[in-house]
Amino acid sequence: MSAIISMDLAGFVPRADQDGAGGGDRVWDDERGVVLSVHDFALVPDLVAPLDAGERLLRDLARQTAQGGAALIEAEVRELGGLPGLRQLVKIPRPGGPGQVFVGAWTVPRDRCSVVLKVQAAEGPVTGMREAVVADRVGFDAYVRPHPYDPELRGPLPSHVADLPEWDAHFPSHPLTLVRETLARVGASAVLDDRFRTLPPFTGPAPEPARRRWWSRR
Q1: CA–CA separation, 213 and 95 (whole Å)
Q2: DSSP class of residue 110?
Q3: CATH classification number, 4-14+23-202, choose in 3.30.70, 1.20.58, 1.20.120, 3.40.1000
Q4: Quick check: 110 pLDDT over 60?
Q5: Which runs of E-coded beta strand occur in 60-212?
Q6: Which residues 6+ apart lie within 8 Å of 33 measured at CB?
Q7: Nearest in space to 211 (alpha carbons), one of 20, 24, 35, 69
Q8: 39-48, 84-93, 188-197 — which is least confidently predicted?
Q9: Which of 83, 92, 125, 183 has the fewest Cβ atoms within 10 Å of its own Cβ atom?
Q10: Taking the model in full, what pTM does it have?
Q11: Helix (H, G, I), strand (E, B), or coil: what is residue 202?
Q12: Rounded-to-integer distance, Cα 176 and Cα 158, Å
């Protein structure tokens, strides 16, 4: 069963190279370099805590992401298609080159399965422009900040104000802006299969679940 039966795919075309997408995974991309994919998992969701765990969920997500070599920019629990879901946005070092890759996802968990709607885009040859401009405008002392979900966290990538959404309008073609906007647009339009909607709700992770790095999936 494909949990997401429709969504706003304006500007996206099916990706020609989908040999790495297993099972029912579906992949699209657009001319801006944004990649959109849907992944259905017939497994107990590997979230670190129930969606109603509040600050503990966000703190544990930030720590888990840092342990995987990435950094959690923002996360929140919101509805997708009428069901509670987890919206996340992370940044990771770009493999094999300078710059970063920005990956966003909606995860809608049920008791024994889940669906992940993922959006990603990478920096091109010119990197660090957004960060440099914002740091110059706000000053270095105001630029770097403690992680919003765990002030004591010291991860592989710094937490800073250039990642905040209020700067997106100043950098409309930046991959972070594109991922954030696409995640919002496609997420708002997603329609879930009624069979998925009526499954028992997710109440918490299984004991000692195997942790997958959702941001590294194709």
Answers
A1: 15
A2: B
A3: 3.40.1000
A4: yes
A5: 71-80, 83-93, 100-109, 114-122, 191-192
A6: 121, 122, 124, 175, 178
A7: 69
A8: 39-48
A9: 125
A10: 0.90
A11: coil
A12: 15
